[in-house]
Amino acid sequence: xxxxxxxxxxxxxxxxxxxxxxxxxxxxxxxxxxxxxxxxxxxxxxxxxxxxxxxxxxxxxxxxxxxxxxxxxxxxxxxxxxxxxxxxxxxxxxxxxxxxxxxxxxxxxxxxxxxxxxxxxxxxxxxxxxxxxxxxxxxxxxxxxxxxxxxxxxxxxxxxxxxxxxxxxxxxxxxxxxxxxxxxxxxxxxxxxxxxxxxxxxxxxxxxxxxxxxxxxxxxxxxxxxxxxxxxxxxxxxxxxxxxxxxxxxxxxxxxxxxxxxxxxxxxxxxxxxxxxxxxxxxxxxxxxxxxxxxxxxxxxxxxxxxxxxxxxxxxxxxxxxxxxxxxxxxxxxxxxxxxxxxxxxxxxxxxxxxxxxxxxxxxxxxxxxxxxxxxxxxxxxxxxxxxxxxxxxxxxxxxxxxxx
Length: 405
What we know:
By secondary structure, the protein is an alpha/beta fold. It has 15 helices and 17 strands.
């Protein structure tokens, strides 16, 4: 069975359409610092508005623990949505209560309302099927149809993602369609040479994706905190750098598999080593084989790939036709340790082919470093969901919409 898309729902004029979006944006003092996920919902919302639907947007934000918490309110998101859509957006101060029902009842054709954070209700993320289902039944009273468009949550079996899609006629929005089209190209028919760049802090977060992609890629570049486990697996001392001792044997296996398969596994040749984990920490560049031979000795910690590695990685990326990148190369939030991530991002904008930024911290990094979204082939809105898809896992929020991987 194929993925159900908007055109399978028939005429939506006058219908109450619940859109499960992913509006989990970063907030600082109630101000959105990156509205990428809000903008990503616009194509689906505009399609529904133009079709004369009465649009009810729902999402989670943060981890409020199943109870209302003002710092996780979706109100700033509703305001930003109104600005981006160029029309009023009503905001309900609860999720399935009186305010939500009033806001939905007041909608005319083409109007939009946002209900309060789904995770203010414990039923949204409940492990108990009956509790989750009961909350989904309450949500279902707000709409006639569900459009699931929060790609960042399709790997979660949650009330608004999974159970609600069984209770109402449901289909995927255009964002999920686009994400799947790109991810399918990465797994089924990548144009070669195909390079995957992995960073971020832990190898353990990427075990599945490394395993699943090793038979499919031509080059695998390893940076970020996870590089130190790879360097240690090759017999290098890494000082106080992030190291997953329990993954060393697994990593040795990956290095051997890459060799057997002819995959070019590229590890850093140098790193930026700092005296401490601080934005203003004293730091030096050291060869990857001599990370403890610095003024900081064994207490030094690597916080970025070095300039030689950055140049090498950028060259490999630029020479590729398909590139998937997930995870920063260093602690990009601190300017002194952002150069590696910047170099990879810059190279990605120069790929003659498909360049994909794999959501999560990578998407945050490119925006924080000042790169416009349209300089990349695709910026995924789902870090965890993208990785699980690339691991070959079944994603409940997609299966319930008819998708079979």
